[in-house]
Amino acid sequence: MLRTLIETKIGVDTLKIPEPSPFVEGTTPELDKLTLGELLGIIQSPDNWSKLDLPYDRDSFCRQLDKIRDYRNGLMHFREELDAEESDEIRNFCDMMRKVASQTSPA
After folding, report:
1. Per-residue pLDDT of the chain (107 residues; tens, 9 = 90+)
2. What is the pTM for the complete model shown?
3. Domain count, the chain
4. Which domain, by its residues, includes 83?
5. How far is 13 from 11, CA to CA, in rounded Å?
């Protein structure tokens, strides 16, 4: 959903990656190869954030996405179990993203 939102609202051709990435060849990134951390970096950029036109505070949204990224990395790379609160945070963030996706999808 994040990749689709970025592609739709910002556009791949005008996308600026904040740091060099091993997943970006040349100047145009392939969104499907970017990590969650790199997507977060894109979203954190004030220029990119303004294009997303989301009804959320940028800092709060990015802090929450960073927590989700951290939970995901712990689970996938270190097999850390999620507690109930972490699972709820992930579920709530996913619900928020589904809401955003449904509001930005072409009719």
Report:
1. 999 999 999 888 777 666 666 555 555 667 888 889 889 988 998 999 999 999 999 999 999 999 999 999 999 998 889 999 999 999 999 999 999 888 876 54
2. 0.82
3. 1
4. 2-104
5. 6
